[in-house]
Amino acid sequence: MTKEIKVPSFPESVADGRVAAWHKQLGDTFDRDEVIAEVETDKVMFEVPAPARGRLTNIRAELGATVLSGELMGEFEPVDKLDNAGGEAVSAAEPEQDDKAPSMTPSARRRIEEQGLDPRSIVGSGRQGRILKEDVTQAPAAASQAAHDRVDSEAAVGLTSGQKPGPGSQTLRQDRRVPMTRLRARIAERLVEAQHTAAILTTFNEINMAPVMELRSRYKESFEKRHGVRLGFMSFFIRAATEALARFPEVNASIDGEDIVYHDYHDIGVAVASSRGLVVPVLRDVDGLSMAQIEGKISDFATRAGEGKLDMEEISGGTFTITNGGVFGSLLSTPIINPPQSAILGMHKIEQRAVVIDGKVEARPMMYLALSYDHRIVDGSGAVRFLVTLKELLEDPARMLLDV
Fold first, then answer.
1. 75 DSSP β-pair partners
2. 3-state secondary structure of 85
């Protein structure tokens, strides 16, 4: 008797999703709670766990199909035990495979999908030619050499037939059309929405990072030893931003219709790059978090963002956002606010620059800060004073401890 595999339940804010991956194919077996498919929404990637041990017998929602919460994705036949020889779950009787779908283990299939390889070009070393993970690991180098040999061969044929060599004669030109992921499409939609609905303006300042760098250098080893997490720059900026937001509540506010909503709490989003695009997990009630707790949460967010394992609640809401383009080498930028928030802070690359200190020109590690804000809520003077407050707190970190 077959059992059903259904789409996970979505929150009310998510209308539908797209089948992003099937980690099992017809005939493959799996254990209870093993991830057999993934459904991508405009916010997060939902894993589809196996409700019980079984063998996949039917796929109702193919790769790329749009699905609704609770919709039937596929069916499976329960089995009593799995053959785990070699550490991989395999079907008791392999279904016949044609050239378009060679037999492979789940881990091999994941690697093939991640690397964009053609499974038909990989020679399997497993039972009955089944492709193993090790076969995929060796495939990119072989494929690269084969492509190189093919180009050389085609170039030689061209010269033999009397064609003249020219620029680009040994390069392959092609276009690839790839559908936007739900997350990328949502990012595009929200950025355009922000540009069309908010009066965005950006103001800049620069800070001397020497005091923070010296403080971090002095205590980073003892900090990591005591708290088990590295001391970075982001916790300093989040702590300073929290204090500045308390002094300038309009920067922490949002517009709802004809009302301005002032938030008496500080939920700060930190932009994190992932393979799927930019995500912004939120640190809730930052006022009550220590520097170690802030660093720990940021590290955890970064790890799980890379794995696509952030929960919906963790990337929803937020009253203010910080993005650090400096980790990628950005010297200056104008970040776009994350609606309905009224402002976003952009950090940038730390660079030695000549500055005047007490009448003398000296080299200092400087960073440009950019505050993009919704001019409908935040006046220019408030935005400038907000950045000046950040500058004062970060150039003299003792101010954050003394509340001055």
1. 4, 58
2. helix
Rounded-to-10 torsion of CA 218, 222, 228, 229: 0
In this prediction, residue 5 carries a pLDDT of 92
Check whether residue 190 and residue 129 sit in a common domain. no
Residues 94 and 233 in one domain: no
- C-alpha to C-alpha distance for 239 and 288, rounded to whole angstroms: 10
Count of domains for the chain: 2
SS3 content of the chain, % helix, strand, coil (to 5): 35, 25, 40
Q: How far apart are the first and last CA of the chain?
A: 71
Annotated catalytic sites, by residue? 375, 379
Task: Look up the domain containing 40 and give its range.
Answer: 3-140
The Cα–Cα gap between 370 and 204 comes to: 5
263-296 residue pLDDT tens: 999 999 999 887 677 788 999 999 999 999 999 9
- Tell me the CATH number at 283: 3.30.559.10
- Mean pLDDT on 359-363: 94
**Structural domain contains residue 163:** no
Average pLDDT (230-241) is 94
- End of a domain among 108, 140, 172? 140
Q: Give exposure, 165-202, as e/b (b: 16+ Cβ within 10 Å).
A: eeeeeeeeeeeeeeeebbbeeebeeeeeebeeebebeb
Distances (CA, A) of 236 to 219, 221, 372, 394: 13, 16, 20, 7
